[in-house]
Design goal:
GMP Synthetase, Chain A, domain 3, eleven-stranded mixed β-sheet, Rossmann fold, globular, four-stranded mixed β-sheet
């Protein structure tokens, strides 16, 4: 299988020189970009100052285009060249639907084939696919790429496609070696297995791929303990495809820097941050831009990217040439409660560090003149007093805590592409 691994850093630099110009030239075919693009010297795009003249692109910029005008204003090929549509991710705001051409899909599938190679998957494996099946592409792409590599697939989708109890039965009967899905759904299946008396940690599953939501060390440890399997974190976005993926050795997520031009910039100034420092991720697809010309896409993620020289520990691997990305968090992931910023990931970690916490959901609402953090928690043992003390000590905010019967939250989560674990009801 030809995964088109670049042979050197010089290969990647050459691709950047050639493909950045092509990306800009294609964007200039778009009515949307012609209106917002400043004068550019195309022969000088390798000059960082010239490249940064291109304004950042956000989802809100695209939502200003009326849905019925999106193709005509933003896209650069006729609808007849579309072979499929991808739904944008995210739990808030109007969803967007991006057309993809056959040429786009050739590169997209290759990227997902690489993802399987990075975890050491072969035709001896069978993958149980629990990413949601639908217009959102992630489940299809993993499954189609797996088939190309001879890897067996079980296309379950999330709980809305195949009930979670049935998924556990299929894992028991079909003996998959790899499970793939969102980490929150993996935890739900583990909780359900425990309640049903099924020892998931002794199942056939040896490796887990998670994506579509940030994975903290605490959540990773909880997943690995519950499933008895290695967890591999992958990261992507509908505006590109899979951007980075964790490989054997677990040294961080390898960035496919030959497929994208990636920048990490200061949130306030837009200036680049130093190598390995945390900043806001900006992505320009270099190959999958024949329909939707994404330039300098501001993804809303805080990440760090370390150069290959600083990151590589296995020079014999063909992917060692790629930088390493670490995902810090989503930029919008916090509540402000009584003047205190509570990061969603920090709250999740604080609760999941307690092994008796099975699951939880957090809401912020108005309670008279004050904001109220309300936690709905499922526990194995213990009572609400420990949760109160934990959150008060961690965030200097005293929450309201409601204990729920086991399985209550899972039923609410199953119907959603991305679990609504954090809800702000203040209007």
């Amino acid at each position: 299988m030809d995964f088109r691994w670049p042979r050197s850093q010089q290969d990647i630099e050459r691709i950047h020189r050639e493909r950045k110009r092509i990306a800009v030239e294609r964007a200039l075919q778009s009515a949307f970009w012609r209106q917002r693009m400043p004068p550019l010297a195309l022969e000088r795009l390798e000059d960082p100052a010239e490249w940064r003249k291109i304004p950042l692109l956000t989802k809100e910029d695209l939502r200003r285009i009326p849905p019925e005008r999106f193709h005509e204003e933003f896209c650069i090929q006729p609808r007849s060249r579309t072979v499929e549509y991808w739904r944008s991710g995210g739990a808030t705001g109007r969803p967007l639907f991006y057309p993809r051409s056959a040429e786009d899909m050739t590169h997209n599938i290759l990227i997902f084939e690489r993802a399987w190679a990075l975890i050491g998957a072969t035709a001896e494996d069978c993958a149980h696919v629990s990413f949601p099946l639908g217009v959102h592409p992630v489940a299809h792409l993993y499954a189609r790429a797996a088939i190309n590599l001879g890897i067996g697939t079980v296309w379950c989708g999330a709980g809305t496609s195949t009930p979670s109890e049935v998924q556990l039965e299929l894992i028991d009967h079909l003996k998959p070696t790899i499970w793939i899905g969102m980490a929150s759904y993996g935890l739900h299946l583990a909780n359900l297995a425990e309640a049903r008396g099924y020892d998931l940690a002794s199942s056939s599953v040896e490796k887990i791929i998670v994506a579509a939501e940030p994975l903290s060390p605490v959540k990773r440890e909880k997943l690995e303990r519950s499933w008895g399997a290695q967890v591999f974190d992958h990261f992507g976005m509908t505006e590109g495809a899979l951007v980075s993926a964790e490989a054997v050795g677990h040294h961080g997520m390898r960035v496919f820097s030959d497929m994208y031009f990636l920048e990490v910039v200061d949130e306030r100034t837009g200036e680049p941050v130093a190598d390995g420092e945390v900043g806001s991720l900006v992505v320009t697809p270099l190959w999958t831009n024949t329909m939707t010309p994404f330039l300098r896409w501001s993804s809303g993620d805080l990440v760090s990217i370390s150069s290959p020289a600083a990151a590589s520990r296995n020079p014999e691997r063909p992917w060692s040439i790629f930088p390493i990305m670490r995902h810090a968090r989503r930029t919008v992931g916090f509540f402000k409660v009584r003047g205190v910023n509570i990061n969603h990931a920090d709250l999740e970690d604080a609760l999941f560090r307690d092994p008796d916490v099975v699951d939880f959901r957090a809401e912020v609402c108005n309670a008279g003149a004050n904001d109220l953090l309300h936690l709905f928690v499922e526990l194995r043992t213990g009572d609400r007093a420990r949760i109160l003390e934990n959150v008060r000590n961690s965030f200097q905010v005293t929450p309201e805590v409601t204990l729920l019967p086991r399985g209550t939250i899972a039923k609410e989560f199953e119907a959603n592409v991305k679990a609504p674990r954090f809800v702000d009801k203040r209007g």
